[in-house]
Design a protein that fits this description.
The protein is of the alpha+beta class. It is 24% helix and 32% strand. The structure holds zinc ion (ZN).
Length: 173
């Protein structure tokens, strides 16, 4: 017998169908059996991958395990999972829908890191500094600065939001 917390098992292949509304299938015969405690409600749980918590978000799924939804979310670059719970009544009708967003910390950090990491060069000798998007730009700046000012030494720092500045040592080889 299903326990209240057991997960919904979709028939094979359902998770490959893409962006469709969650479906309920596969255990109709099991549910229609008379039960000893008829008043007991139970839950169906399934997971979606989604790109934000906004109302106009993209959702992909459903998946019957969190791990599957998480794998798919990471493939798509989505930063969130959505856990749906259907509270079912006696006649297996849906009485209540609950959904909970779960942020994937790694995924969100990885996405924002790509956008928000900048490189900072600063001369340890005279204090002149500059900001760059690409590593080669930092190298060119340092080359020119050290060429124009003999015995000046340029240091490189990486700046990412939430983590601050981090020096990259020995970057000039
Ligand atoms: Zn300098």
């Amino acid at each position: 017998m299903r326990s209240a917390a057991s997960e919904l098992h979709f028939p094979q292949g359902l998770s490959d169908r893409g962006l469709k509304q969650p479906q309920r299938a596969g255990f109709a015969t099991q549910i229609s059996k008379p039960r000893a405690k008829p008043a007991m409600a139970f839950k169906e749980i399934f997971w979606m991958a989604c790109d934000s918590t906004e109302q106009l978000r993209a959702e992909y799924g459903p998946f019957h395990t969190r791990a599957e939804a998480e794998t798919e979310a990471r493939k798509l670059g989505f930063g969130y999972l959505l856990r749906y719970e259907h509270i079912l009544g006696e006649g297996e009708e849906i009485q209540e829908v609950r959904c909970i967003f779960i942020e994937l910390p790694g995924a969100v950090a990885a996405i924002s890191e790509v956008i928000q990491t900048t490189l900072h060069t600063r001369c340890a000798t005279c204090g002149e500094s500059a900001v760059h998007d690409q590593p080669w730009q930092a190298e060119v700046w340092a080359d020119i600065h050290e060429f124009e000012h003999s015995r000046h030494r340029v240091r490189l720092f990486e700046h990412s939001r939430g983590r601050g500045l981090k020096e990259i040592c020995d970057w000039r080889g």
